[in-house]
Each structure stands twice: as C-alpha cells, then as structure tokens.
Amino acid sequence: MPWSDNRPAACVPESLVHSDDAIVVSGMRKKFGDFAAVDGIDLTVKRGEIFGFLGPNGSGKTTTIRMLCGVIEPTGGGARVMGYDVCSEAEKVRANIGYMSQKFSLFQDLTVDENLKFYGGIYGLSSEKLAERREYILDMADLRGREKELTGNLSVGWKQRLALGCATIHEPKLIFLDEPTSGVDPTARRQFWELLYELASGGVTLFVTTHYMDEATHCNRLAFIYRGRIVAEGTPQEVKADLSADTILQISVDRGEEALAALEDMPAVQEGYMQGSLVHVNLGRRSPSEADIEGYLRSRGFAVTSIEPVEPTLEDAFVHLVTQQGGRA
Amino acid sequence: MSFRRIWLLVWKEFTQLLRDRSMIPLIFIMPVIQLVLFGYVIGTDVKDLRTAFLDQDGTTASQQVVDGFTSSGYFVSVARPTNDAGVRRALDGNVAQVAIIIPRGFADQVSKGQAAQLSVIVDGSDAKTASVAQGYAGSIVANLSGKLYPRPATKPGATTPGGVDARVRVLFNPTMRAVNTMVPALLAFILMMSTQNLISQSIVKERERGTLEQLFVTPIGRAEYLIGKLLPYVAVAIIQILIVFTVGTLWFKVPFSGSVAVLGIGLALFMITMLGQGMLISLMSRTRYQAQQANVFLMVPSMMLSGFVFPLSSMPALLIPLTYLIPLRYILVIVRSNFVKGSGFIDLWPQFLAMIIFSVAIFGLGLTRFQKRLSD
C-alpha cells in the first residue's frame, strides 16, 4: 500500500531505550542512490537536554532531522523518538514532537489566529484546549492585538516566535529546531533563546541545529556531523578538551585572507581559518615560541598588529574536526 | 485518516484562495471572459454585412430577393448602385463587403420555372468574413428558392441559382453553429486551464514557502494532504463548469441535447487527468514562475492539436499522430457530440476508453511521483 505512512517492522528494538531517553539513534543511515547522506550514526539524547547538532551544510544534518521526525524512512538502522519507532510508528512520532525550521513555515497569507487554529486542529486539540494554548502563545510571542494581522506582515522576530508557538501548540515534550535563528537579528536571537531556556526548564527536550557557535555553547551536549558521520560528541567542554593541549593563536593582521593563505603553507601551522577579521592558527602541541609567526608574516610584507594565544573555542574545535576528516569547514 | 485534518486543510486552502485578490477574478471572471471572447470573436458571429444591391430587373421577384437578404439580419443595404461600375466602386472603397446583382430577366426565368441567375460578390480580402458571408448568402438563396418556386423544382439544379454555392450551410443556422460547438469545448478547455494551473501553483507555493515541509512533520498523512489539496480545486472546477454551462445555455442560447451523466462523467475523467498533470508540473518546477511556464508549454499544443480552435480535418497528415496524445482531443469529441447531438456512452466508447486510460495513467503517475518525492 504505497500511501500508508507506516512500515510494519520496527527498526530499533524497544529494549535499547531507557526511560530517560528522548531520542535513541542506532546505526541510522540514508542513501540517495549511491550517496550516503547519513552513514550509520549513533546518538542518544536524554530527556530535558538542550542538544546541539552541528555540522557544515550538506553534512547530513537536515536528512537526520527529517528521519528523526518520521518524514523520510532510513535506508538502514533507525531511531526511537519519545519511545516511538521512526520506521513503524512515524505518525505517533510526528504527533509527539514539535518541529520548527529556519523558514518559520507559517502560512503567510493566513492571520495569526488562523495559523493557530490550523495547527491546533491538526494536532487534535479540543476547542477549550486550543483557546487556552492560544492565550498562552499570544502572550509568549507578544502578539496580543495582532490576532487578525496577516502573518506575512509581521516582523521576523514575531514570525519566529509565532512559529515556535505553532510548533509547540500541542505541548510536545521534544522539539526539533532546524537553524531556528538564522537570519534573525542578535536581539531577537537572544530573546528567542530565552524562550528556549524557559521551555527546557519545563522539562522539554530541545534538539537544535545552528550555525552560530555562541549558540552551541548554550547547549548541554553537542554532536558534530560531518560527511554523514558523527565526528565528535559530548558537552561543549568535552568537545573543546580535544584541543586543550593545542596552541591556538589569534592574529590581527592586515589583508587577513592573504595572510591566512600564506600561513597555511607554514610547516608549523596545523590549520588556520578566519574568525571574523582575525586569523586563527592551530600550532598543535608546539609552543608559540617554536614558530616565528610574526617574522614569517613581516618577511612577506604583512603588517601584524598583535598575536596572542587564546583558549580554544567551539569554532576552533569544529575546524579542527573537519580538518582531521580531510575537508575544509 | 482523519476527517478533521482533511477539513482543516480544505478550510486553509479556501481561506488562502479567497484572500488572494488576483485569484477570485481569475476563477470566476476568467471563464466568462473566455466564453465571451470565444463565443463572439472566434464564434464567427458576423452580422450586419454591408451590402450593395444592384437590381437590374426591378420586379416584385427581385424585390423579394433584396428583402430576403436584408430581413435576415446579416445583410444591411448600404448602397444601391445602378450599374456594374457602381458595384465596383462600393467594393473598392470598402463601402460594401458584399454585392448582390439581380440581372435583367430574373422574374421571367422564375415565372417560367427556369434556373434564375443571381450573382453574389464577396470581398475576399477578409477571408473569414468572406466565407461566412458566402455561407449566409447560400442559405438565404436556398430559402428564397423555396418561396419563389412553390412547386417542386422542374430540375434539381434549378433551386440553386448560378454563381452562389448553396451547399455551404446545410443543417444548422450558420451563426449559431460555431457557438454551439465552442461553448461545450470551453467547458473542457477552462477546466484544463484552471485545474492544472491552480493545483500546480498551489503545491509549488507551499514548497517555496516551506509550509509543505512543515505539514509533513505534523500528524497529517500523505493521503490526507493530497485529498485536502485536491478537493478545493475540484470544487473550483465544478463551479467554473457550472458558470460556463449556465452562461452558454442561457446567454448564448446553446441548446443542450445531451445527458448530464455523460457530460459529467466525461468531464470528471478529464479533471482527474488535469489534476495529475498539475501534480506532475508541480514536481518538475521549483518556482511558481517555472510552473506557469510549464502550464503554457502544455497549453499551446493542446489548443492547436486537439481540434479546439483548428479542425482536425484541416491538419497536415504529419501532425495527426500527435493529436492522439492530447487528452483534450477526446474530451472535446465527448462534450461536443453530447451537447449538440446527445451522443451517449455507446456512441462515444472509444473516447471514453481513451479518457479512462489517460486519467488512470496520468493521475497514477502523478500520485506515485509525488509520493516518491516526499519520501526522499
């Protein structure tokens, strides 16, 4: 029956799931033709966690989320989400999660109220419950007085909060957020994270992907996915610990991009990349005195303003992981 | 399958549709505009042809001929030249489009029961008008012959005065005939234009905005989504068909001699085919603009090769095999024959068979491709 949503066989046995697990992923893979977008990943997300799922574009992040939400079926392995199997119980998975993407998938040509009515109904809320949730969301998103306004006319920050409201109208215990803050100004981002913290403090599990490294530090735990595989997992501290013995130098120099290209040819430099207008280089286990960065750059005509060792950031760890895998961030 | 979810999807779709200011005129006014355009413009409804009468006979019989033309409503007397040169001036100066010359001795020949000569000269520079005028003149003359020769004509040729080809129009009133076949054809054509277009635009819009992605992480099933998506456009199509039918039969006075069942089932099969085509277009298009282009791309051959505008009989033999691939071709035969002649399922079985094959194949393909796209 091509139109059924469920496959008969569960792909992950229930016995693998502990009562405090929100998500258990086991050997999950997805192939598109010969290309393995997700190549056999294992993950566990505990209930109540803010879990950061990081990786460059095209690394398999979105494919993973789509499988976890029961939208597409894994080609091998699988996952249990809130206790339900993504292969055999996709509809139950979808009824028990919230999902919000960077597009804030609201109906732009419906009003605020109409969007709430639609999503409330889709999740099977009774009219009393819907009325109660509507009040809550209007307060949360600061949309009082704008109930009859077309969603398309709202500012980005409002849209984002309304989207979160619609995605959580059925009070799911697990919410997937796929780059929810991309394209949003810093103030709105901070406000949005406050809302997320509020949800998390209420026991809701959050599975967040983000490009912003400062946001990743807000997470309890992180996983890096690269070329379809998990290359690192742990708390932000654990992920950075890999680099704690390495020397990271932050260099302020004119013509940063050119300086970076020159530094990458220097034998002592393991990896380098731009962080804003500054150049970061990783010297590995070498001490700063073992490499005459300043002399090297000066001899090539660059004007160096400062060179100072810094604590590794998540971004350093991220670049390090990707470089180790033989790619570029 | 949850009816509440399907109902919400339908409600959402209608709310969006009604809110789109360009949509309402498109849905409700467009069929009427098309009817008027095709009904009046292409409908060859040529009236009040400017006519020069040269009556060289000057008898009661010849006056009867003039009256016969002017009272028909298609010919208006604009000039009464007295000689051939006057006729030429009227035609050259575009004063008249048609000239009718009744030669001396016309009444004599009629009274003797002989074939009477009568010349009808038509300005051929406007081919369309010319052929229509020729047709009208032919049937008016045939009609006159019946009045002028009360007894059965002595010779078969006598009822057809020379110089006029009276064979052009045989069965129907020439002006009504074109509209009579155009209005039924528009039922199918408008169904095609709007169903295919609206459904593909609507799905592509949902994908462009990311709402499609969002809907599939809710408990909405794929079957629910499709039913919720298709139902509103089925309703829109039915409303449009009713508009065209009503305006066609009441305003254009197209007689409906067919059966609602035959017409309804034929159009339903065609609609399913068009929904399938719309889904396929939506899968091939990333933006609404692309979908629009794909619609136009399909529209042109359908218009040209289905017999909608140009009769299949006048098509080059090379193109004929292509016409069999066009669903509109078959539904046009169904709606036209049913409307005009009352043909039923038995008469139209080859066309119905073709429509069933098309609807199953195209809608089925649309469904499976759509399902596949959603699972990737």
Written description of the protein model:
Helices cover 32% and strands 26% of the residues of chain A. Chain A has 329 residues and is α/β, with parallel strands linked by helices. Chain A has 2 domains: 14-239, 3-Layer(aba) Sandwich (Rossmann fold); 245-311, Alpha-Beta Plaits (2-Layer Sandwich). In chain A, the strands form 3 sheets. Chain A has a 6-stranded mixed sheet with strand order 6-7-8-3-9-10, with helices on both faces. A 4-stranded antiparallel sheet of chain A has the order 2-1-4-5. In chain A, strand 7 (174-178), helix 6 (186-201) and strand 8 (205-209) form a beta-alpha-beta unit. With 376 residues, chain B is mainly alpha-helical. Chain B is built from 14 helices and 4 strands. In chain B, strand 1, helix 3 and strand 2 (75-79) form a beta-alpha-beta unit. In chain B, helix 7 packs antiparallel against helix 9, helix 7 runs parallel beside helix 10 (260-284) and helix 10 (260-284) packs parallel to helix 14 (349-375). The longest helix of chain B is centred in the middle third of the chain and has 36 residues, at 174-209. Chain B starts with a helix and ends with a helix. The chains are: A alpha/beta (329), B mainly alpha (376). The A-B interface holds A 2-3, 5, 32, 69-73, 91, 94-95, 97, 99, 101, 103-110, 114, 118-119, 121-124, 150, 176 and B 2, 4-5, 8, 11-12, 15-16, 19-20, 209-211, 213-223, 367-368, 371, 374-376.
The largest β sheet of chain B comes out as: 4 strands, mixed
Q: What is the overall shape of chain A?
A: globular
Helix percent of chain A reads: 25-40%
| Terminal Cα span of chain B | 22 Å
Compute the number of strand runs of chain B.
4
